[in-house]
């Protein structure tokens, strides 16, 4: 059996990381972060906790690998198509009332969701006057997202999602195939700004008409979820939209009365106070 880190060791390790690298993972959901530290130790053949601690404290490159292991980067184009369909049907008509729109895509991973949103905005004549700010804690995935190159073999599945999401054209209109990859069209990247941003520590950087953050809060404990929801609340204009996706919830947040529900399944809310 590999490493089974104790709560005390986990606390100490995350404290060292916070001091040394300025990243605070102490409010990530406990079971999940312990599992990931154990996995990280196995992958790197560290036999005990002291090995992990010593190497992580002294090797910056290893810390980059640690972030990759700690954060789950799974994503896909038009993931949960019903979410995108709902956005297009219930939110886009209200977004047309703004002459210019700023959207924050928080926890964008490798960018598949960002390109999906851009495509749907384009098909609904909303992309031209929209800027999408896409951020993630992980520098490596942000770089991939900016490049917009995805494996060709996934396009069949992404096309099925696109059609279920209400896509009106052909997904292949938006990319060029290059051997076993596809390169997303430049015209889609035009209004995208990619950057690293840590939801567990960094402040707001703009005011937005819509914030999308799916499959990210589930990795945080309740305190950190509350802090991040406060950050989103402060970053939204009045009547702006918060789209969290079906797996998240604001039911336990004290901010719930400051939002009205636009769609209860897809957890799409509108700031009203
Ligand atoms: C499972 S992916 C979700 C990607 C996409 N939103 C989706 O639903 O397909 C979770 C992403 O959250 C990012 N993440 C985790 N902790 C974060 C933090 N503190 N600040 C910003 N992003 C974070 C991870 O790096 C990862 O890319």
Strand order, biggest sheet? 6-2-1-7-8-10-9
Largest sheet: 7 strands, mixed
> What fold name stands as the CATH topology of the largest domain?
Rossmann fold
Hetero ligands: S-adenosylmethionine
Helix and strand sequence:
HHHHHEHEHEHEEHEEHEEE
**How many beta-strand runs?**
10
Question: Which value, in Å, is the CA radius of gyration?
Answer: 20 Å
Mean pLDDT: 96
Name of the CATH class of the largest domain: Alpha Beta
Indicate the low-confidence ranges by residue numbers.
none
- CATH architecture assignment of the largest domain: 3-Layer(aba) Sandwich
Number of helices: 10
* Percent range of helical residues: 40-55%
Overview of this structure, please?
- There is one protein chain.
- The protein has 273 residues and is of the alpha/beta class.
- The strands form 2 sheets. It has a 7-stranded mixed β-sheet with strand order 6-2-1-7-8-10-9.
- Helix content is 42%, strand content 19%.
- α1 runs parallel beside α3 and α3 packs across α4.
- The N and C termini lie far apart (52 Å).
- It has 10 helices and 10 strands.
- The model has no long low-confidence stretch (mean pLDDT 96).
- The radius of gyration is 20 Å and the shape is globular.
- It folds into 2 domains: 64 residues, no CATH class; 191 residues, Vaccinia Virus protein VP39 (Rossmann fold, 3-Layer(aba) Sandwich).
- The chain binds S-adenosylmethionine (SAM).
- S-adenosylmethionine binds next to loops.
